[in-house]
Amino acid sequence: MTKTISSVGEDALVAAIAGSCSRIAPRLIKGMGDDTSVTVQKSGMALLATTDSLIEGIHFVRAHTTPYLLGRRCLSVSLSDIAAMGGRPLFHLISIAMPPDTPKAFISGLYKGIDACGLEYGSCLAGGNTASLPDRLVISSTVFGEMDKRRVVYRSGARHGDVIYVSGRLGDSALGLKILQEDGPAALTGRYKDAVAKHLNPAPRLALGAELAKGRLASAMMDLSDGLGIDLGRLCEASGAAGRIELAKIPVSPQLTHYAKGGLLGAAAFAAGGGEDYELLFTSPVSRAKGIAAAARRSSTSITPIGIITERKRGRQTVTFLSEDGREVDLPVRGFQHF
Q1: How distant, in Å, are the alpha carbons of 31, 32, 137, 149, 254 from that of 114?
Q2: Residue 231 CA to its chain's centroid (Å)
Q3: 193-213: average pLDDT
Q4: CATH homologous superfamily for 8-148?
Q5: Which of 208, 240, 205, 216 is nearest to 288 (CA)?
Q6: Which of 144, 156, 254, 304 stands the most exposed, by the fewest C-beta atoms within 10 Å?
Q7: Half-sphere exposure of 249 toward its Cβ, with a 13 Å CA cutoff?
Q8: Which residues partner with 242 through β-bridges?
Q9: Domain with CATH 3.90.650.10 in the chain
């Protein structure tokens, strides 16, 4: 007989979760088992905090992933926010609302993924919450990190003439989601399986973010969660500036180029309107180009300059996209918004 959460009971479930955590952090005085966790903070360091939720039927389909990968993803999306501030992760809280008939093995696999991701990136489980929800699974992750308060990188520092960079390749996550929606579980082993893997198991760019912040190389930074078109608009709004992107410079994978029928511009337009890349979008003065390249090498992360920050003009779009001949291109989709 399959053990379910209701047959195990909440206290036994929490005890099992606590016992599955393989990392003990020296600054975690008390983790699970009291009303709050208790941690030690360092003088002069800013405490970073972020939270995200994954909702079944909106952010994931249970049949399209594994419990382990879902666990990794739920923590990675929050770790990406810490990376965007240039910070170092410390602790995380995980809250789960689930149907009572959820198999215990599913939750065990989920926490194995969370634990493996935390171990890889230096974050320790410090607590959370469990609750019953009749028809779907909802997972919320809260991550705490820290950063020298003088070197935190905000969205608001981009200035006219700064170069716009992105890490990695864009659009694979959106492609992976599209293929999953079309092919279901068969997509996991199909032609676009690498793009599917990028969607299901994103890699937060913590090493690059830390290098950029440590060297004061980025004037503004954020992670790409909702798509380049929307997220660059947010960075520009915060900075009181505008941005101009050359579509042909957006880095895309061979898989996405193939999907777009070999047209690089079509692939780039798809990437610009996709979401959930969890790459870093940042700006930097031209004079820091050598430092940016060195930071990319030290963090083993590819980066690409794709545009420039311009002056904000009334009546003009905050973000413009240009074709290879310099014409403005109106993209039909600029990213994902919940509302």
Answers
A1: 16, 15, 16, 28, 30
A2: 12
A3: 97
A4: PurM-like, N-terminal domain (3.30.1330.10)
A5: 216
A6: 254
A7: 19
A8: 310
A9: 155-329
Residues 277 and 261: their CA atoms lie apart, in Å, by: 21
How far is residue 164's CA from residue 167's CA, in Å, rounded to a whole number? Answer: 11
- Predicted local confidence at residue 338, as pLDDT: 65
User: Per this entry, what is the length of the chain?
Assistant: 339
More confident residue, 40 or 201: 201
- Quick check: helix, strand or coil at residue 21? coil
318: exposed, middle or buried (Cβ count in 10 Å: 0-12, 13-18, 19+): middle
Q: Cβ contacts of residue 66 below 8 Å, gap of 6+?
A: 109, 113
Q: What is the mean pLDDT of residues 73-79?
A: 98
The CB density around residue 339, as the number of other CB atoms within 10 Å, is 2
Instruction: Read off the pLDDT of residues 106-155 as tens digits, 9 standing for 90 and up.
Output: 999 999 999 999 999 999 999 999 999 999 999 999 999 999 999 999 99
Query: Any idea which fold 155-329 has?
Result: Phosphoribosyl-aminoimidazole Synthetase; Chain A, domain 2 (3.90.650)
Cβ-contact 5, 111 below 8 angstroms = no
